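User: Predict the complex with magnesium ion.
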Amino acid sequence: MREHFFAVSELSKRFGGLEAVRRASFSVEPQEIVGLIGPNGAGKTTLVRMIMGLLRPDGGKVLWKGQDITRHPTWKRVVHGITGTFQNSRPMKRLPLIANVMVGLHNPRVRGQGEWVKTVEARALDALEFVGISDLAMSPAGAVSQGDLKRLEIARAIATEPELLVLDEPFAGLTQAETRLLANSVHRLRKGGRFGRLHSEGCAMIIVEHKLSELMRIADRIVVMHFGEVLADGHPERVVQDPRVVEAYLGKVGAHVPEVF
Ligand SMILES: Nc1ncnc2c1ncn2[C@@H]1O[C@H](COP(=O)(O)OP(=O)(O)OP(=O)(O)O)[C@@H](O)[C@H]1O
Ligand SMILES: [Mg+2]
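Assistant: Here is the predicted structure with magnesium ion placed in the model:
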């Protein structure tokens, strides 16, 4: 088998009698943006939690540059360069945004690069700047808007200078203008470059999102999940025309049918 930048192979997770994820396989190449879609309950969050090491799979593998990291804890994946945001993240509300970012930098990937506290503070500020909320650096997380909290989550993740960023519904709850801004940040991140003291060679991404029209604009490839399985994997335009994919969305009684179909 060809060695991928990142891959999951036959990954499975059961909750009691429910197979939330069943033998899911897909790969991500450097700087590639992969959109992960599927109806509610399809297993997307379960899959990305296994990718981030927050949930232990019952079977299958997580592979990073050919290395089996299935049993590696989350902090170690951050050392490798894999990090992400969570669907239901809870910031430390009393702490200012900058402190919320700094806490996430307590990782060997960041330590050991000069004077730690200074490095971390500078990086945290640059990450907030990158997502456009550095003016709120000293505001407690409990006092900022939902959109700003979403951006805080992304700042926390990118401050570790990831090579693979996993975003679970980054656009949920954002206005159209906020969504556009964030989508632009995503593009800049993929391209790479120097963002203040942060440096990126270009970041690959897995983005779980229900706002499909926005996702289709930024994704190179779409992986569709349905009842825990990977139903389709391919070019965005082709995937939304796949009858099985349309059926997966339309066939669900009362389901919200995304605007792209
Ligand atoms: N910790 C858990 N214990 C039991 N069942 C769970 C647990 N986490 C998820 N599930 C179930 O597993 C299935 C997949 O859930 P998951 O959250 O991965 O779906 P999803 O694709 O992210 O959905 P959504 O689009 O609504 O976020 C659902 O039926 C869910 O109820
Ligand atoms: Mg989810």
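Residues 44-45, 87 surround magnesium ion (ligand 2) (CB under 6 Å).
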